[in-house]
Amino acid sequence: MSTRPARRGSVVRSGRRPARVITPASRRSNRSIGTRVGKMLEALPVPRAFMRRVRNWTLGVLVGGGIVAGLVAMGVPQMIGMAMAHGLGRMGFVVRTIEISGREHVDRDQVYGIVMDARGQDMPLVDLTATRQKLLAIGWVDDARVSRRLPDTLVVDIVERKPAAILQRNQQLSLIDATGRVLAPVDPKTMPVQLPLVIGPGAETQVGHLEALLATQPTMKNLIEGGTWVGQRRWDLRFQSGEVLALPEGDDAARDALARFARKDSEARLLGQGYVRIDMRDPAHMIVRTSNEPGTRIADAPPGGVA
């Protein structure tokens, strides 16, 4: 059986159907979403010219932001700032004078050792924040303000902490403030007598409460040598005349007991009579221990009729 050659221009038909191009579902979905968004934008009552301007401005902002980010990454703003600072320095804005105020107890050399690093620097390049943080690390310094006074002066204003007591710990004496912060070591030979000596674990955390307690009885405050923080809960006060006054737990109870003792002392003169210990922990009784004879003798009331 012979086959005829196909004529030119004729269509050869076969049993197979031509392959159909299938568009992926995701592409069809994106296209449909884009079409819907486009129709929604076209439906907005906004002129097309305005929409074109918005797109152009948005593109410009994005391009500008990219340029700025690139310049920042390259350090261009920092270089410009340094150049401007050096320019001001050549104009005379250089730290030549340092003024320090408010310093009384802070070691002078310690302060100058920190701030003198700024001397000779171009004024805009002085790191005020870093200088202040170094000053705050000094025990005596409660606050510090560092500022520029153009054209050539750096001003340092120091606020010192107020000493409240002397802490004895591990045979070492330290000056502390009302918060318990250590200000400086204390030489036993030059220990300030006007501050109370506090002893006991955690005593430094209670100095503020002790100050408030003694402030309620000014006449007693001047007679007290110090205090021992007992069992993390209460004070034993030591008088300069040698007596120990045991106070109860709690700020209110301790304040009432000290007031009661001050009243009794004004009536019958308890201090300076040879008593070793006066216990005020029981609000109904005052118990004293005397040293008139060997051993320990506890009485409900000392001689003289004080109950």
Characterization of this structure:
- With about 300 residues, this protein is an alpha/beta fold.
- Among the domains are: about 90-160, Ubiquitin-like (UB roll), CATH 3.10.20; about 165-300, Cell division protein FtsQ/DivIB (Rossmann fold, 3-Layer(aba) Sandwich), CATH 3.40.50.
- The protein is about 35% helix and about 20% strand.
- It contains eight helices and 13 strands.
- A ten-stranded mixed sheet has the order 6-5-4-7-8-9-10-11-12-13. The protein has a three-stranded mixed sheet with strand order 1-3-2, with helices on one face.
- It is elongated, with a radius of gyration of 43 Å.
- Residues about 10, about 85-90 and about 295-305 have low confidence and may be disordered.
Q: What best-fitting shape do the alpha-carbon axes yield?
A: elongated
Which stretches are poorly predicted, pLDDT < 50 over at least 5 residues?
A: 8-12, 85-90, 293-307
Beginning-to-end CA distance, first to last residue: 146 Å
Going by helix content, strand content and strand pairing, the class is alpha/beta
Mean pLDDT: 78
Strand order of the largest sheet: 6-5-4-7-8-9-10-11-12-13
The major pleated sheet works out as: 10 strands, mixed
Please identify which CATH superfamily of the domain at 163-299 we are dealing with.
Answer: Cell division protein FtsQ/DivIB
